[in-house]
Amino acid sequence: MIFITGGAGFIGSNFVLDWLAQSDEPAINLDKLSYAGNLENLASLQGDARHVFVQGDLGDRALVDALLAQHRPRAVVNFAAESHVDRSIHGPEDFIQTNIVGTFRLLEAVRAYWSGLPEAEKAAFRFLHVSTDEVYGTLSKDDPPFAETKPYEPNSPYSASKAASDHLVRAWHHTYGLPVVTTNCSNNYGPYHFPEKLIPLMIVNALAGKPLPVYGDGMQIRDWLYVKDHCSAIRRVLEAGKLGETYNVGGWNEKPNIEIVHTVCQLLDELRPRADGQPYAQQITYVTDRPGHDRRYAIDARKIERELGWRPAETFETGIRKTVQWYLDNPEWVANVQSGAYREWVAKQYEGEAA
Ligand code: NAD
Ligand code: TYD
Fold first, then answer.
1. Which domains does the chain possess?
2. Atom 4 in ligand 2: which residue has the minimum CA distance?
3. Active-site residue among 133, 166, 223, 314?
4. pTM (two decimals)
Protein backbone atom coordinates (compact mmCIF):
# COMPACT_ATOMS: atom_id res chain seq x y z
CA MET A 1 0.00 0.00 0.00
CA ILE A 2 0.98 3.61 -0.35
CA PHE A 3 0.86 6.27 2.38
CA ILE A 4 -0.42 9.67 1.34
CA THR A 5 -0.42 12.85 3.41
CA GLY A 6 -2.79 15.71 2.62
CA GLY A 7 -5.03 13.49 0.50
CA ALA A 8 -8.19 15.43 1.36
CA GLY A 9 -6.90 18.65 -0.23
CA PHE A 10 -7.17 19.75 -3.84
CA ILE A 11 -4.32 17.85 -5.49
CA GLY A 12 -4.17 15.04 -2.92
CA SER A 13 -7.83 14.11 -3.35
CA ASN A 14 -7.50 14.14 -7.15
CA PHE A 15 -4.46 11.90 -6.73
CA VAL A 16 -6.25 9.42 -4.43
CA LEU A 17 -9.24 9.23 -6.80
CA ASP A 18 -6.99 8.65 -9.83
CA TRP A 19 -4.80 6.17 -7.97
CA LEU A 20 -7.73 3.95 -6.98
CA ALA A 21 -9.31 4.30 -10.42
CA GLN A 22 -6.12 2.91 -11.96
CA SER A 23 -4.92 0.30 -9.52
CA ASP A 24 -6.12 -1.85 -6.65
CA GLU A 25 -3.20 -0.93 -4.43
CA PRO A 26 -4.72 0.50 -1.24
CA ALA A 27 -3.93 4.01 -0.03
CA ILE A 28 -3.77 5.21 3.54
CA ASN A 29 -4.58 8.90 3.66
CA LEU A 30 -3.37 11.00 6.62
CA ASP A 31 -4.88 14.48 6.62
CA LYS A 32 -5.38 17.01 9.40
CA LEU A 33 -8.54 18.34 7.73
CA SER A 34 -7.52 21.96 7.96
CA TYR A 35 -9.91 24.46 6.34
CA ALA A 36 -8.53 23.19 2.98
CA GLY A 37 -9.11 19.51 3.68
CA ASN A 38 -12.49 18.28 2.52
CA LEU A 39 -13.55 14.64 2.75
CA GLU A 40 -16.50 15.44 0.51
CA ASN A 41 -13.90 15.34 -2.32
CA LEU A 42 -13.54 11.62 -1.57
CA ALA A 43 -17.24 10.85 -1.07
CA SER A 44 -17.21 8.43 -4.02
CA LEU A 45 -14.79 6.22 -2.05
CA GLN A 46 -17.06 5.78 0.93
CA GLY A 47 -17.20 2.10 1.83
CA ASP A 48 -14.21 1.33 -0.41
CA ALA A 49 -11.81 -0.72 1.73
CA ARG A 50 -8.87 0.32 -0.47
CA HIS A 51 -9.01 3.84 1.02
CA VAL A 52 -8.11 4.17 4.69
CA PHE A 53 -8.63 7.69 5.97
CA VAL A 54 -6.99 8.88 9.19
CA GLN A 55 -7.47 12.38 10.54
CA GLY A 56 -4.19 13.58 11.99
CA ASP A 57 -1.13 15.78 11.66
CA LEU A 58 1.91 14.77 9.62
CA GLY A 59 3.99 16.16 12.50
CA ASP A 60 2.42 13.77 15.04
CA ARG A 61 5.35 11.41 15.40
CA ALA A 62 3.57 8.81 17.56
CA LEU A 63 0.64 8.62 15.16
CA VAL A 64 2.81 8.39 12.03
CA ASP A 65 5.08 5.77 13.65
CA ALA A 66 2.02 3.66 14.53
CA LEU A 67 0.49 3.99 11.05
CA LEU A 68 3.72 3.05 9.29
CA ALA A 69 4.21 0.03 11.56
CA GLN A 70 0.63 -1.11 11.09
CA HIS A 71 0.23 -0.59 7.33
CA ARG A 72 3.81 -1.14 6.13
CA PRO A 73 3.59 1.07 3.01
CA ARG A 74 6.02 0.70 0.12
CA ALA A 75 5.96 4.44 -0.52
CA VAL A 76 5.02 7.79 1.01
CA VAL A 77 3.67 10.66 -1.10
CA ASN A 78 3.76 13.92 0.84
CA PHE A 79 1.12 16.45 -0.27
CA ALA A 80 0.25 17.85 3.16
CA ALA A 81 1.01 21.55 3.41
CA GLU A 82 -0.37 24.98 3.99
CA SER A 83 -0.62 26.12 0.39
CA HIS A 84 -2.06 29.62 -0.01
CA VAL A 85 0.38 32.51 -0.51
CA ASP A 86 -2.05 35.20 0.72
CA ARG A 87 -2.69 33.28 3.96
CA SER A 88 1.08 32.90 4.43
CA ILE A 89 1.44 36.68 4.25
CA HIS A 90 -1.23 37.25 6.91
CA GLY A 91 -0.12 34.39 9.18
CA PRO A 92 3.15 32.58 8.41
CA GLU A 93 3.26 30.50 11.62
CA ASP A 94 1.13 27.57 10.35
CA PHE A 95 3.33 27.42 7.25
CA ILE A 96 6.47 27.04 9.35
CA GLN A 97 4.83 24.40 11.53
CA THR A 98 3.29 22.21 8.83
CA ASN A 99 5.57 22.74 5.85
CA ILE A 100 8.91 22.75 7.70
CA VAL A 101 8.52 21.16 11.14
CA GLY A 102 5.85 18.74 9.87
CA THR A 103 7.99 17.60 6.94
CA PHE A 104 10.97 17.18 9.27
CA ARG A 105 8.96 15.00 11.66
CA LEU A 106 7.54 12.96 8.81
CA LEU A 107 11.03 12.42 7.39
CA GLU A 108 12.25 11.22 10.78
CA ALA A 109 9.33 8.81 11.20
CA VAL A 110 9.81 7.47 7.68
CA ARG A 111 13.56 7.13 8.17
CA ALA A 112 13.06 5.04 11.32
CA TYR A 113 10.51 2.82 9.56
CA TRP A 114 12.57 2.48 6.37
CA SER A 115 15.77 1.63 8.32
CA GLY A 116 14.06 -1.39 9.82
CA LEU A 117 12.75 -2.83 6.54
CA PRO A 118 14.19 -6.03 5.08
CA GLU A 119 16.79 -5.28 2.35
CA ALA A 120 14.55 -5.87 -0.68
CA GLU A 121 11.72 -3.70 0.68
CA LYS A 122 14.22 -1.09 1.78
CA ALA A 123 15.66 -0.86 -1.72
CA ALA A 124 12.23 -0.57 -3.33
CA PHE A 125 10.91 2.05 -0.89
CA ARG A 126 10.23 5.64 -2.08
CA PHE A 127 9.49 8.97 -0.38
CA LEU A 128 8.00 11.37 -2.92
CA HIS A 129 7.85 15.00 -1.84
CA VAL A 130 5.36 17.18 -3.70
CA SER A 131 6.62 20.72 -4.08
CA THR A 132 6.14 23.87 -6.10
CA ASP A 133 7.92 25.98 -8.72
CA GLU A 134 7.52 28.97 -6.36
CA VAL A 135 10.73 27.90 -4.56
CA TYR A 136 12.71 29.22 -7.54
CA GLY A 137 11.50 32.79 -7.05
CA THR A 138 10.38 35.12 -9.80
CA LEU A 139 11.33 35.52 -13.47
CA SER A 140 11.40 38.58 -15.65
CA LYS A 141 9.80 38.54 -19.08
CA ASP A 142 12.82 37.30 -21.04
CA ASP A 143 14.36 34.86 -18.53
CA PRO A 144 14.38 31.19 -19.50
CA PRO A 145 11.84 29.03 -17.63
CA PHE A 146 12.87 27.30 -14.37
CA ALA A 147 15.11 24.26 -14.90
CA GLU A 148 15.92 21.90 -12.01
CA THR A 149 19.36 23.52 -11.77
CA LYS A 150 17.94 27.01 -11.04
CA PRO A 151 19.04 28.19 -7.56
CA TYR A 152 16.25 28.57 -5.01
CA GLU A 153 15.15 32.19 -4.38
CA PRO A 154 11.80 31.96 -2.55
CA ASN A 155 10.04 35.28 -1.93
CA SER A 156 6.88 34.56 0.10
CA PRO A 157 6.51 32.87 3.49
CA TYR A 158 4.76 30.02 1.63
CA SER A 159 7.53 29.49 -0.92
CA ALA A 160 10.25 29.90 1.72
CA SER A 161 8.61 27.19 3.83
CA LYS A 162 8.31 24.86 0.83
CA ALA A 163 11.94 25.57 -0.12
CA ALA A 164 13.00 24.66 3.42
CA SER A 165 11.07 21.39 3.20
CA ASP A 166 12.70 20.58 -0.15
CA HIS A 167 16.12 21.12 1.41
CA LEU A 168 15.29 18.81 4.30
CA VAL A 169 14.16 16.10 1.89
CA ARG A 170 17.36 16.49 -0.12
CA ALA A 171 19.50 16.33 3.04
CA TRP A 172 17.74 13.19 4.32
CA HIS A 173 18.75 11.52 1.07
CA HIS A 174 22.36 12.70 1.04
CA THR A 175 22.98 12.16 4.75
CA TYR A 176 20.87 9.13 5.61
CA GLY A 177 20.35 7.54 2.21
CA LEU A 178 16.55 7.86 2.41
CA PRO A 179 15.26 7.04 -1.10
CA VAL A 180 13.57 10.33 -2.02
CA VAL A 181 12.33 12.00 -5.18
CA THR A 182 10.91 15.54 -5.38
CA THR A 183 8.54 17.14 -7.87
CA ASN A 184 8.32 20.93 -8.34
CA CYS A 185 5.11 21.74 -10.17
CA SER A 186 3.59 24.90 -11.56
CA ASN A 187 0.09 26.25 -10.73
CA ASN A 188 -2.61 23.58 -10.88
CA TYR A 189 -6.30 24.00 -11.67
CA GLY A 190 -9.24 21.61 -11.92
CA PRO A 191 -11.99 19.94 -9.83
CA TYR A 192 -12.04 20.30 -6.00
CA HIS A 193 -9.88 23.45 -6.06
CA PHE A 194 -10.64 25.52 -2.95
CA PRO A 195 -12.22 28.82 -4.02
CA GLU A 196 -9.56 31.03 -2.44
CA LYS A 197 -7.21 30.43 -5.39
CA LEU A 198 -7.47 32.44 -8.61
CA ILE A 199 -9.42 30.18 -11.01
CA PRO A 200 -12.08 28.72 -8.67
CA LEU A 201 -12.51 32.11 -6.95
CA MET A 202 -13.24 33.77 -10.30
CA ILE A 203 -15.77 31.08 -11.23
CA VAL A 204 -17.70 31.17 -7.97
CA ASN A 205 -17.59 34.98 -7.64
CA ALA A 206 -18.74 35.41 -11.23
CA LEU A 207 -21.72 33.11 -10.68
CA ALA A 208 -22.57 34.85 -7.40
CA GLY A 209 -22.56 38.28 -9.10
CA LYS A 210 -19.59 39.38 -7.01
CA PRO A 211 -16.51 41.40 -8.12
CA LEU A 212 -13.62 39.49 -9.74
CA PRO A 213 -10.59 40.86 -7.86
CA VAL A 214 -7.47 41.12 -10.05
CA TYR A 215 -4.32 42.01 -8.12
CA GLY A 216 -2.23 44.94 -9.41
CA ASP A 217 -2.14 45.21 -13.21
CA GLY A 218 -3.15 41.57 -13.77
CA MET A 219 -0.06 40.99 -15.93
CA GLN A 220 1.59 38.50 -13.55
CA ILE A 221 2.29 35.25 -15.36
CA ARG A 222 1.67 31.71 -14.09
CA ASP A 223 2.23 28.40 -15.93
CA TRP A 224 -1.02 26.44 -15.62
CA LEU A 225 -1.34 22.64 -15.44
CA TYR A 226 -4.54 20.61 -15.21
CA VAL A 227 -4.49 18.77 -11.88
CA LYS A 228 -4.92 15.30 -13.40
CA ASP A 229 -1.74 15.88 -15.40
CA HIS A 230 0.10 16.72 -12.18
CA CYS A 231 -1.23 13.45 -10.72
CA SER A 232 0.00 11.45 -13.71
CA ALA A 233 3.43 13.08 -13.38
CA ILE A 234 3.62 12.13 -9.70
CA ARG A 235 2.67 8.53 -10.52
CA ARG A 236 5.35 8.42 -13.19
CA VAL A 237 8.06 9.86 -10.90
CA LEU A 238 7.06 7.42 -8.16
CA GLU A 239 7.39 4.58 -10.64
CA ALA A 240 10.58 5.53 -12.43
CA GLY A 241 12.16 8.68 -10.93
CA LYS A 242 15.86 8.47 -10.08
CA LEU A 243 16.66 8.55 -6.39
CA GLY A 244 17.63 11.95 -5.01
CA GLU A 245 16.52 13.71 -8.21
CA THR A 246 14.06 16.56 -8.61
CA TYR A 247 11.64 16.85 -11.53
CA ASN A 248 9.98 20.06 -12.67
CA VAL A 249 6.40 19.53 -13.81
CA GLY A 250 4.56 22.01 -16.01
CA GLY A 251 2.19 22.35 -18.93
CA TRP A 252 4.00 24.89 -21.16
CA ASN A 253 1.03 27.16 -20.54
CA GLU A 254 2.24 30.58 -19.47
CA LYS A 255 -0.58 33.07 -19.22
CA PRO A 256 -1.08 36.47 -17.57
CA ASN A 257 -3.74 36.46 -14.84
CA ILE A 258 -6.00 38.87 -16.68
CA GLU A 259 -6.14 36.52 -19.67
CA ILE A 260 -7.13 33.65 -17.36
CA VAL A 261 -9.91 35.75 -15.87
CA HIS A 262 -11.19 36.73 -19.33
CA THR A 263 -11.15 33.08 -20.45
CA VAL A 264 -13.20 32.05 -17.40
CA CYS A 265 -15.65 34.89 -18.10
CA GLN A 266 -16.02 33.91 -21.76
CA LEU A 267 -16.67 30.26 -20.90
CA LEU A 268 -19.31 31.28 -18.37
CA ASP A 269 -20.87 33.66 -20.96
CA GLU A 270 -21.22 30.62 -23.20
CA LEU A 271 -22.18 27.93 -20.67
CA ARG A 272 -24.22 29.91 -18.10
CA PRO A 273 -24.98 33.40 -19.49
CA ARG A 274 -25.86 36.13 -17.00
CA ALA A 275 -29.60 36.70 -16.58
CA ASP A 276 -29.20 40.29 -17.79
CA GLY A 277 -27.30 39.16 -20.90
CA GLN A 278 -24.25 41.25 -19.96
CA PRO A 279 -20.72 39.71 -20.07
CA TYR A 280 -19.20 38.44 -16.81
CA ALA A 281 -16.09 40.50 -17.62
CA GLN A 282 -18.07 43.52 -16.37
CA GLN A 283 -17.43 42.17 -12.85
CA ILE A 284 -13.62 42.44 -13.17
CA THR A 285 -12.21 44.82 -10.51
CA TYR A 286 -8.56 45.77 -10.15
CA VAL A 287 -7.49 45.68 -6.48
CA THR A 288 -4.32 46.43 -4.48
CA ASP A 289 -1.45 44.15 -5.42
CA ARG A 290 -0.20 41.32 -3.19
CA PRO A 291 2.94 42.39 -1.24
CA GLY A 292 6.11 40.93 -2.80
CA HIS A 293 4.03 39.51 -5.66
CA ASP A 294 6.15 37.26 -7.91
CA ARG A 295 5.85 38.52 -11.48
CA ARG A 296 6.33 35.36 -13.50
CA TYR A 297 6.67 31.60 -13.03
CA ALA A 298 7.46 29.27 -15.92
CA ILE A 299 8.55 25.64 -15.92
CA ASP A 300 11.04 23.96 -18.20
CA ALA A 301 9.53 20.46 -18.18
CA ARG A 302 12.04 18.89 -20.56
CA LYS A 303 13.77 16.69 -17.97
CA ILE A 304 10.66 14.75 -16.95
CA GLU A 305 9.73 14.34 -20.61
CA ARG A 306 13.22 13.24 -21.69
CA GLU A 307 13.97 10.90 -18.78
CA LEU A 308 10.52 9.59 -17.86
CA GLY A 309 8.49 10.16 -21.03
CA TRP A 310 5.83 12.25 -19.23
CA ARG A 311 3.79 14.87 -21.04
CA PRO A 312 0.51 16.55 -20.07
CA ALA A 313 -2.62 15.15 -21.70
CA GLU A 314 -4.69 18.36 -21.51
CA THR A 315 -4.17 21.65 -23.27
CA PHE A 316 -5.19 24.76 -21.35
CA GLU A 317 -8.26 25.10 -23.58
CA THR A 318 -9.55 21.58 -22.81
CA GLY A 319 -8.60 21.71 -19.13
CA ILE A 320 -10.19 25.06 -18.36
CA ARG A 321 -13.42 24.11 -20.12
CA LYS A 322 -13.64 20.90 -18.05
CA THR A 323 -12.92 22.88 -14.91
CA VAL A 324 -15.59 25.54 -15.48
CA GLN A 325 -18.07 22.79 -16.37
CA TRP A 326 -17.18 20.89 -13.17
CA TYR A 327 -17.98 23.93 -11.02
CA LEU A 328 -21.26 24.42 -12.88
CA ASP A 329 -22.14 20.76 -12.33
CA ASN A 330 -21.26 20.78 -8.61
CA PRO A 331 -23.05 23.74 -7.00
CA GLU A 332 -23.59 21.77 -3.80
CA TRP A 333 -19.85 21.20 -3.33
CA VAL A 334 -19.27 24.92 -3.84
CA ALA A 335 -22.06 25.91 -1.44
CA ASN A 336 -20.80 23.51 1.24
CA VAL A 337 -17.24 24.81 0.93
CA GLN A 338 -18.37 28.42 1.07
CA SER A 339 -20.64 27.97 4.06
CA GLY A 340 -18.23 25.68 5.90
CA ALA A 341 -21.00 23.05 5.83
CA TYR A 342 -18.53 20.47 4.56
CA ARG A 343 -17.15 20.24 8.07
CA GLU A 344 -20.55 19.14 9.42
CA TRP A 345 -20.96 16.85 6.43
CA VAL A 346 -17.66 15.22 7.26
CA ALA A 347 -18.56 14.79 10.91
CA LYS A 348 -21.82 13.07 9.93
CA GLN A 349 -20.65 11.00 6.99
CA TYR A 350 -17.40 9.80 8.44
CA GLU A 351 -18.38 9.35 12.06
CA GLY A 352 -16.19 6.61 13.48
CA GLU A 353 -14.16 6.32 10.29
CA ALA A 354 -11.93 9.33 10.85
CA ALA A 355 -9.59 8.35 13.66
P1 NAD B 1 -4.50 22.21 -0.31
O2 NAD B 1 -4.31 23.37 0.62
O3 NAD B 1 -5.72 22.14 -1.15
O4 NAD B 1 -4.46 20.85 0.54
C5 NAD B 1 -3.54 20.62 1.57
C6 NAD B 1 -4.04 19.44 2.38
O7 NAD B 1 -3.09 19.20 3.43
C8 NAD B 1 -5.39 19.69 3.06
O9 NAD B 1 -6.23 18.56 2.89
C10 NAD B 1 -5.03 19.90 4.52
O11 NAD B 1 -6.07 19.48 5.41
C12 NAD B 1 -3.80 19.04 4.66
N13 NAD B 1 -2.94 19.47 5.76
C14 NAD B 1 -2.57 20.75 6.07
N15 NAD B 1 -1.78 20.75 7.15
C16 NAD B 1 -1.63 19.44 7.53
C17 NAD B 1 -0.93 18.80 8.58
N18 NAD B 1 -0.22 19.50 9.46
N19 NAD B 1 -0.98 17.45 8.67
C20 NAD B 1 -1.74 16.73 7.78
N21 NAD B 1 -2.43 17.30 6.78
C22 NAD B 1 -2.38 18.62 6.66
O23 NAD B 1 -3.18 22.17 -1.18
P24 NAD B 1 -2.95 21.60 -2.65
O25 NAD B 1 -3.14 22.71 -3.61
O26 NAD B 1 -3.69 20.34 -2.83
O27 NAD B 1 -1.37 21.31 -2.59
C28 NAD B 1 -0.88 20.04 -2.22
C29 NAD B 1 0.63 20.05 -2.31
O30 NAD B 1 1.04 20.38 -3.63
C31 NAD B 1 1.28 21.09 -1.39
O32 NAD B 1 2.45 20.52 -0.84
C33 NAD B 1 1.61 22.24 -2.31
O34 NAD B 1 2.73 22.96 -1.86
C35 NAD B 1 1.92 21.49 -3.60
N36 NAD B 1 1.69 22.25 -4.85
C37 NAD B 1 0.49 22.88 -5.07
C38 NAD B 1 0.28 23.53 -6.28
C39 NAD B 1 -1.03 24.21 -6.60
O40 NAD B 1 -1.14 24.87 -7.64
N41 NAD B 1 -2.07 24.05 -5.79
C42 NAD B 1 1.30 23.56 -7.25
C43 NAD B 1 2.51 22.89 -6.98
C44 NAD B 1 2.68 22.24 -5.78
P1 TYD C 1 -3.06 31.87 -6.57
O2 TYD C 1 -4.15 31.05 -7.16
O3 TYD C 1 -3.21 32.36 -5.17
O4 TYD C 1 -1.70 31.05 -6.76
P5 TYD C 1 -0.15 31.52 -6.52
O6 TYD C 1 -0.13 32.81 -5.82
O7 TYD C 1 0.37 30.40 -5.67
O8 TYD C 1 0.46 31.57 -7.88
O9 TYD C 1 -2.84 33.15 -7.49
C10 TYD C 1 -2.52 33.00 -8.86
C11 TYD C 1 -2.27 34.37 -9.42
O12 TYD C 1 -3.49 35.12 -9.39
C13 TYD C 1 -1.29 35.17 -8.60
O14 TYD C 1 -0.48 35.96 -9.47
C15 TYD C 1 -2.15 36.06 -7.71
C16 TYD C 1 -3.36 36.31 -8.61
N17 TYD C 1 -4.64 36.51 -7.91
C18 TYD C 1 -5.45 37.61 -8.23
O19 TYD C 1 -5.11 38.44 -9.09
N20 TYD C 1 -6.64 37.74 -7.58
C21 TYD C 1 -7.06 36.86 -6.62
O22 TYD C 1 -8.15 37.07 -6.02
C23 TYD C 1 -6.23 35.73 -6.30
C24 TYD C 1 -6.64 34.73 -5.26
C25 TYD C 1 -5.02 35.60 -6.99
1. 2-187+227-251+296-314 (3.40.50.720)
2. 197
3. 133
4. 0.96
